Amino acid sequence: MKTILLTFALFWSVNSVAHSLMPPIDIGKIDKAKVGSLNSQTFISENNFVFRPIEHPFNMQMYFSEYNEWHLLEEDLLHWSGAMGIDPRVVLTTLAITSGWNPKSNPSDPELSRYKLDIKQITNYLSQVFYQSINQSLSDDQAISFALSSSLKSSALWPQWVSFYKEWFGEPSSDQSRTKSAQPEMQWPWRAGYNWVPNGPHSHTGSGFPLSSIDVSYDWPRWGGQTYSVTAAHEGYVSIFSRCQLRVTHPDGWATNYYHMDGIDIQHGAWVSKNDRIGTYASQKNIALCQGGSSTGPHLHFSVLFNGRFQSLQNLSLGPYQVDVGRYSYDNNCRYTWMTDKRSNNKRCFWSRIDNPL
């Protein structure tokens, strides 16, 4: 019997390490002497650097209605902006400086393919450098400055970056960051009354910090296996980023991302209540990874944000379970990462089946 239980535990542990959306970036290898720094008066604040789709909605038609060909970039742009948490306006301005993107040109198929890949790389780079810098105790403004200046390779390009941004998008909004409120009541992102298996906390990219995300699945099947309904973890407004990703934003600024989706059956801009069905998690790899990335099998990649910024799950609660995130992404040592069932004060390990009570 002990052998069977050990085999079962190893199965969950090995198969639940689900994916890395993008390869990790080591900011220690960035040559800070060559990067320089931007002006101390930061042009882009955190409120405009991170993606807040309800407060700062974006679509290509809003800014580039004369150049309709560029709508072919929109899903890639919104998908990676949502997954990495970087505002699309920041991404497009950086794309123009680093890759020569020009909204007034007529794109060829090779250009579109190249720009789609560049968008994926830019959002990953900006996101990882920003969050790693924050983790190394830089201020928000310093982290944004470092991410942008290092992506441009030279701070001498910053005035051109600002000029492009103003030309296309106007002055950045001046709204203030709101004070962080208490976490709203959240359940797990599957139907109340059912038991699923979560794996260990990890970053939104699969490596690095903050440990904002958890992958969940009913039974961690192989590709092509049965998958099940995903539900809203809390009430809020829906932002659909792509065929396989959406966000629900609570009015107080808290939000949750749902990635590797299929059959999204809620409309963009709709209001959902906690436990409302929003789709299923994808059974087929090409659907789950509609814009790329890697994954070992069907699951939902679920992340928590506040005011557009990914939040550590440390001490946050999903249903009756309070999370201790552990030491690093996918930490599978239950001495360091676990859930506390607040109904009984019992400790539960990740990679074990838990309930989502009614």
Automatic annotation (TrEMBL):
InterPro entries: Cell_wall_metabolism_enzyme, Dup_hybrid_motif, M23ase_b-sheet_dom, Pept_M23A_Blytic. Residues 1-18 form the signal peptide. Its EC number is 3.4.24.-. Binds 1 zinc ion per subunit. SUPFAM superfamilies: Duplicated hybrid motif (SSF51261). GO terms for biological process: proteolysis. Its cofactor is Zn(2+). One of its GO terms (molecular function) is metal ion binding. The active site is at 260 (proton donor/acceptor), 299 (proton donor/acceptor). Residues 229-309 form the M23ase beta-sheet core domain. Zn(2+) binds at residues 202, 215, 301. Keywords: Disulfide bond, Hydrolase, Metal-binding, Metalloprotease, Protease, Signal, Zinc. Disulfide bonds join 244-290, 334-349. Pfam families: Peptidase_M23. This is Protease LasA. It comes from Vibrio aquimaris. The gene is lasA.
